[in-house]
Amino acid sequence: MRQAFGAEEVFRANLPDGSIMHAEVRIGDSLVELADGGGRWQPRPAAIHLYVGDADATYARALRAGATSLIAPTDMPYGDREGDVKDPLGNHWYIGTHKLDGPIRPGLRSVTPALHAKGADRLIDFLKQAFGAEELERNHAPTAPSRTPSSGWGIRSWSWAFPPMPASLHYYVEHTDAVYASALRAGATSLGEPSNRPYGDRAAEVADPFGNHWYVATHVGRRDPGRDEAGGGT
């Protein structure tokens, strides 16, 4: 992400064996969280829509950094110039520049999770019921976005080109307990009940019916200083 997208590392917490328990990197106006998979939390390659100032130049830089091409830069019918790559760890990056009033499509940010689902219509219904999502657009083009008032998700129906890729998403809300209960009523299963965490969040975890993991949280206090010291964040 540093080499391909100019990412800036802003936080890192290591486990005793040197692996990354939690890290945060900034790309444009957005943060991406990541960790070394293992044990209960196995690796889960993600699909991410990335808006940049020059899609062609960033696509070329990603290839130089070790990515492989999925789709060469192309003018898309939804107003983006987009090139898609897969990074060495299996994550898909849909690199775009919005050509109409860009470089970022109105209502989105630099980084937007892209959810691949077999049954995208049912996933949109789940997001509405669980999180109060607002559907912005639905069509038979590759992307049908749905969003909450403060963030966005792109949703793509399953196909040979876009196989299901269950994602992990950190979702900040006003009331963790209420949203956790709403997600369970909408069909999610619990991965962790709401509790206060040492990094200052009240958080809970659920898995939706499509395998996506949602880390629902409300920030209620300061991050544990010991975590910052152990992480050696920059």
Task: Write up what this structure looks like.
This protein has 234 residues and is α+β, with helices and mostly antiparallel strands. The protein has one domain (2-167): 2,3-Dihydroxybiphenyl 1,2-Dioxygenase, domain 1 (Roll). The protein has five helices and 15 strands. It has helices at 2-5, 55-64, 120-131, 176-185, 225-231; strands at residues 8-14, 20-27, 30-34, 47-51, 68-75, 80-86, 92-98, 111-117, 134-135, 144-148, 151-157, 168-172, 189-196, 201-207, 213-219. The strands form three sheets. An eight-stranded mixed beta sheet has the order 5-6-7-4-8-11-10-9, with helices on one face. Strands 12-15-14-13 form a four-stranded mixed beta sheet, covered by helices on one side. Strand 9 (134-135) and strand 10 (144-148) form a beta hairpin.
Query: CATH architecture, please?
Result: Roll
Order of helices and strands: HEEEEHEEEEHEEEEHEEEH
Major beta-sheet overview: 8 strands, mixed
Output mean pLDDT. Answer: 85
Domain count: the total is 1
Q: How many runs of DSSP E, i.e. beta strands?
A: 15
- Going by helix content, strand content and strand pairing, the class is alpha+beta
Tell me, what's the shape? globular
From the 3D structure, determine the CATH topology.
2,3-Dihydroxybiphenyl 1,2-Dioxygenase, domain 1
What strand order characterises the main sheet? 5-6-7-4-8-11-10-9
- Give the % helix: 10-25%
Distance between the termini: 16 Å
CATH superfamily label: 2,3-Dihydroxybiphenyl 1,2-Dioxygenase, domain 1
Q: Work out the radius of gyration.
A: 18 Å
Low-confidence stretches: 141-151, 224-234
Query: According to CATH, what is the class?
Result: Alpha Beta
Helix count, DSSP H or I runs of 4 or more residues = 5
What percent of residues are in strands?
A: 35-45%
